[in-house]
UniProtKB/TrEMBL annotation:
Classification of source organism: Eukaryota, Viridiplantae, Streptophyta, Embryophyta, Tracheophyta
Protein name: NAD(P)-binding domain-containing protein
Protein family membership: Belongs to the NAD(P)-dependent epimerase/dehydratase family.
Record domain NAD(P)-binding: where: 60-265
PANTHER family referenced in this protein's UniProt entry, alphabetically: NITROGEN METABOLIC REGULATION PROTEIN NMR-RELATED (PTHR14194), OS05G0110300 PROTEIN (PTHR14194:SF86)
Native source organism of the sequence: Hordeum vulgare subsp. vulgare
Alphabetical list of InterPro entries matching this protein: NAD(P)-bd_dom (IPR016040), NAD(P)-bd_dom_sf (IPR036291), SARED1-like (IPR044163)
One MF term in the entry's GO annotations: oxidoreductase activity
């Protein structure tokens, strides 16, 4: 879902707990002082050394960002074996999916099991998507109203659905999970939470915390406002605690988010990290190519 950059985020707040499961914990902002055990090589290194390329599943592969990630993985067949998970046959056809694209519902653990089985890494790009209520006339002023379809609200998709994916991947010994979320999660009053009264950032944050506590090596990418622009032509900016929302550089191209997802699988420096992601305007700064250095500068685990 496109993330609308809005008012500057306030300091981290203790969120109310509407959850039926374990209450959400505010970010602890711990700093990584050392790595866990011996440093492991990125997933693609074994393929470069003559081993089999790792199998990477992209969920939400029919979405606008998910399509890009899936395509990039397919283009790098020497490094990765790509898989996709979509919800409907139409979505599968839209990305010209073959046997490597599975149809399943992330709210149903049984339906996603075939896609999860045998993977080495998981990239989660599923998200609840609000719909505009019919009858809105922009010529009359005012703002449109939004709603979530029954059973597809953020609690079901962004919390339960993502938890199901994390649990399934952990159960088969996945080596890394990359989760794409949104900036704004430190502000309970962020406008995105009001869309359809869905509290989408609250539920996304709960899933992020669950992943961080899972013990599985993870990378959490909280993207700024997503733009349908070419990637690889801007200098990327990383931050924490929604500090980027206080600046003028609050957006990022979907293609750049997709590239960061894949680069996170290649470098040990990306593991056990969580960060906000945006970019400078095209023409300002130097386009980012050294992703290892980008990940190395990140010290936040959540």
């Amino acid at each position: 879902m496109t993330t609308a950059a809005a008012a500057a985020a306030t300091a981290t707040m203790r969120l109310p707990s509407p959850f039926k499961a374990t209450p959400f914990r505010p970010p602890c902002h711990r700093v990584v002082l050392s790595t866990r055990g011996p440093r492991r090589a990125g997933l693609a290194v074994s393929a470069a050394a003559g081993g089999s390329p790792p199998t990477v599943l992209v969920t939400g592969a029919g979405g606008r960002t998910g399509q890009i990630v899936y395509r990039k993985l397919k283009e790098r067949a020497d490094q990765f074996v790509a898989r996709g998970l979509v919800r409907t046959p139409d979505s599968k056809a839209k990305i010209d999916g073959g046997d490597d694209v599975f149809i399943g519902d992330i709210r149903d653990t049984g339906s996603i099991a075939p896609a999860i089985d045998g993977i080495d890494a998981l990239i989660i790009l599923t998200s609840g998507v609000p719909k505009m209520k019919p009858g809105f006339d922009p010529s009359k002023g005012g703002r449109p109203e939004f709603y979530f379809e029954e059973g597809s609200d953020p609690e079901q998709v962004d919390w339960i659905g993502q938890k199901n994916q994390i649990d399934a991947a952990k159960s088969i010994g996945v080596k890394q999970i990359v989760l794409v979320g949104s900036m704004g999660g430190t502000d309970i009053n962020h406008p995105l939470n009001k869309l359809g009264n869905g509290n989408i950032l609250v539920w996304k944050r709960k899933a992020e915390q669950y992943l961080a506590d899972s013990g599985v090596p993870y990378t959490i990418i909280r993207a700024g406002g997503l733009q349908d622009k070419d990637g690889g032509v801007r200098e990327l900016i990383v931050g924490k605690d929604d500090e980027i929302l206080k600046t003028e550089t609050k957006t990022v191209a979907r293609a750049d988010v997709a590239e960061v997802c894949i680069q996170a699988l290649l470098f040990e420096e990306a593991k056990f990290k969580a960060f906000d992601l945006a970019s400078k305007p095209e023409g300002e700064g130097t386009p980012t190519t050294d992703f290892k250095s980008v990940f190395a500068q990140i010290a936040t685990r959540f």
